[in-house]
Design brief:
Elements lengths: L1 H4 L9 H13 L5 H16 L2
Length: 50
């Protein structure tokens, strides 16, 4: 949802985009640190596969 709202694909994400996404997960979604780490891992895996 976040990516669609900001018209970004994972391939186009910058470091700042990732930082903003993490803040969104913490502040807006209220996710735990363990869940956020899973999201970060998935992003990293997706970026490395390109």
């Amino acid at each position: 949802m976040y990516m669609k709202e900001h018209n970004k694909s994972i391939e186009d994400m910058t470091l700042e985009d990732v930082q903003q996404y993490i803040l969104y997960l913490i502040k807006d979604k209220g996710l735990s640190s363990g869940t956020i780490n899973n999201y970060i891992s998935a992003i990293g895996s997706s970026i490395l596969s390109f």
